[in-house]
Write a structure and sequence with these properties.
The protein has 14 helices and 13 strands. It has 413 residues and is of the alpha/beta class. It binds pyridoxal-5'-phosphate and zinc ion (ZN).
């Protein structure tokens, strides 16, 4: 569905869709796309969406900002419509009445970020752009490199030189041009904008390109379809989301806002943004009741949420407040503890995803949520992305001589 107009989430200025590409021309705030279905909900047929046999983000095509490029040939690999599990072992352990975990690791490049990249690359197809650049700690870049490879577009990825080996390996094998920056994610971010301005490449940066939120909103739509629709009417839902730049949170909120406009839901689920203690810029603003997000010197084991200055901080702050939610921080130790806890339910996650679960654990311990309210944790990325952190979170396996007595000895049987 074509975008009717963009509106700045900060100053409220509206823009015709073709007059702006990235952020607000007045205040550089993040832009929200708006659609005619907000005024005319009958434009979208709910039954057609729910009955769709397309098990991907494209089941929501009537709500998306780009056309499905692969209706016949599916050039973009299958993204989204990820499973939601209800692990009994964790629910009991936490003393929760209802627990949902949405597992994003099955996306083509093994993280949530494929949602945004699929939409940005579809936009590049629509506008005939050949080269797309992004700055990334790894996942957004891997997602872009993957989606660009599917359709033969050129991807240039700027990543901090400290990016994790698995993520760099993905970038390189997808055939992207990878440049490692001797600096952090924020440095790579600024350099990528200078480069796209200089060379005219399309920039996919999180929270800079407004199509990223339009991709990420599909997770909000799925949470509605897979969870909210099946809860008793009027039921609350606490949604735990790991936060770096704040764009995943803003995206999920955008999905819920579209659903509210369509009147498919009548209230917003409660958004709970989880930041690492060592990277808590938005949390700080929330606690100080401030409308300014000040940069921190970020340092956390969860590389995907290790951000000095969150690029979507203000909007994420606003969306959390609108939903009556809150921000919470978790320590690296709590993040590491959460990895094998999720593992015990058959889920293998990277530290950023574990942070969301650690946020739920802490919110329950500190009585910030009611255990009788259903909770959903967004597990945003696969544990294969950061094997070192996974190994750090568990006891090493014993090594024995290949003899039965030795096996009995270590198993104490
Ligand atoms: C696995 C994972 N979780 C969470 C996040 C945080 O998302 P955002 O930076 O939009 O807040 C990222 C971002 O890279 C990610 O890759
Ligand atoms: Zn503005």
């Amino acid at each position: 569905m074509p975008i009717s107009y963009f509106q700045c989430s900060h100053c409220g200025r509206k823009f015709e869709p073709e007059t702006v590409t990235y952020t607000c021309l007045t205040c550089c705030g993040n832009l929200d796309a708006h659609f005619s279905f907000e005024e005319n909900p009958s434009e979208v047929n709910q039954a057609a969406v729910v009955e769709s046999r397309e098990a991907s983000i494209w089941r929501y095509a009537p709500l998306l900002a780009v056309f499905d490029p692969g209706f016949e040939t599916m050039p973009i690999h299958r993204v989204g419509f990820t499973p939601v599990y209800q692990p009994e072992i964790l629910r009991k352990k936490l003393g929760l009445e209802t627990l949902f975990i949405k597992d994003e690791s099955g996306n083509p490049s093994a993280s949530f970020k494929d949602r945004a990249s699929a939409i940005v690359v579809s936009r590049a197809i629509e506008t005939d752009v050949e080269t797309i650049i992004a700055a990334s700690t790894g996942n957004a870049g891997a997602a872009l490199a993957c989606m660009a490879a599917c359709v033969g577009k050129r991807a240039i990825i700027l990543a901090p030189r400290t990016a994790l080996p698995a993520k760099i390996a993905q970038l390189l094998t997808y055939g992207a041009q990878v440049i490692l920056v001797d600096g952090n994610y924020d440095d790579a971010f600024n350099l990528s904008i200078a480069a796209s301005n200089e060379f005219g490449w399309y920039n996919r940066n999180t929270a800079y390109n407004p199509y990223t939120v339009e991709g990420k909103k599909t997770a909000g739509l799925e949470i509605w379809e897979q969870v909210l629709r099946h809860l008793p009417s009027g039921s609350d839902l606490n949604v735990f989301i790991p936060v770096g730049d704040g764009n995943i949170l803003s995206g999920i909120a955008k999905g819920f806002l579209d659903l509210l406009a369509l009147r498919w839901i009548n209230k917003l689920p409660r958004l709970i943004g989880v930041q690492a203690e060592g990277s808590g810029a938005i949390y700080n603003a929330f606690i100080q009741k401030s409308n300014r997000v000040e940069a921190v010197k970020a340092n956390t084991i969860a590389d995907s949420i290790n951000v000095d200055l969150p690029r979507d901080g203000l909007r994420a702050l606003k969306r959390v407040r609108e939903s009556n939610g809150f921000f919470i921080t978790v320590s690296d130790e709590q993040i590491l503890t959460a990895i094998p806890q999720l593992g015990s339910a058959g889920l293998f996650v990277e530290p950023a995803a574990a942070a969301a679960y650690a946020g739920l654990v802490k919110a329950l311990q500190t009585n910030q949520i009611d255990p009788s309210t259903p909770a959903l944790v967004l597990a945003t990325g696969s544990g294969l992305k950061d094997v070192r952190a996974a190994m750090q979170s568990v006891q090493p396996a014993p090594i024995i001589e290949p003899r039965l007595e030795k096996l009995k000895e270590v198993l104490s049987v």
